[in-house]
Write a structure and sequence with these properties.
Layout: H1 3-32, H2 37-63, H3 69-95, H4 100-131, H5 135-170, H6 183-198, H7 203-214, H8 219-229, H9 246-253, H10 258-270, H11 275-284, H12 298-305, H13 310-322, H14 327-338
Length: 340
Amino acid sequence: MSQSEQKVVQYLNEAHATEVGLTRVLQSQIAMTPRGSYRSGLEKHLKETRNHAERVQKRLGDLDDGNNPLRVAFGAAGGVLGQALALAKTPFDLVRGSGGEEKVLKNAKDACATEALEIATYTALERLARSVGDAKTADLAASIRADEQKMLKQVLGEIPKLTDAVVKAEVDGNGSYDLSKTGAADAARVAGETAKKTAKSGSASAKRGARQARKVPGVAQAEGQAKGAVASEADLAITGYEKLTADEVVSKLGALSQIDLAKIDSYERKNQSRATVLSKITSLRGNEPWPGYDELSAAEIESVLGEGDDERAKETRSYERSHKNRAGVLKAAERDLANA
């Protein structure tokens, strides 16, 4: 492979890492964005972004048979970096800002910055490719850049409306943000309907529908917040919640899933708003070792750990110790690390 081809492969890898990272960010933003033109735009662009990643990956395959050390080195590092940045940002998307309207606006401003970065990335890729006579890569870059430019224009068009919503909520006291209409809540409803329809065929199938919806980063926490906002005491995962002292509630929180923690957080804020309880929930909330972890049984988790990923084993051990603290899961994680 010539030096010019290696440079094109490098730029393609950078573009692919960006698309992979953006996919995760879009999923988390959709989860917390209410229905409307902005969320529709995000959902449309998520499909485009996945398509972009596939097209860039295909072009990489056309150019490289996999033996190029530059691709192996940068492809792995770039892909992991893009995903890590996106995953690290996901919980921040869910808590930033003082209210729902502000969170959505700040995420939209981030989206503008992300689109500008992608436009610059594909502009550079197109220029490089044309300079070295690679018309196919240049045309691909130009096509994807056009999609990013359309998305940037659309998001910029949403900014005034989102800002008006912040003013109404935080200045006029007339908030419009509704957790029950977010992408996470809608996904939860779809999962619930799926579960009801498949209940007759067995509980395993019913649970699978709910699990699939919660595998989108951010869905579990946002779903819990949405449910907690309208929940009664009977809906909570802790029996006799209202009769318990703050210390008694705190002692039970570690065994709960992220969705149940979010539900209790929302319920507690709406009712007693005890600082001790809310502080403990905050310390327990965060990323699961992998999306959908809290929905798995100990045996299912142990099966995944058996695949030999030591980084995942470390994350599982840390998370499990702070939460359900199941002996079998901890032993499996330790065994994985010992064999690494």
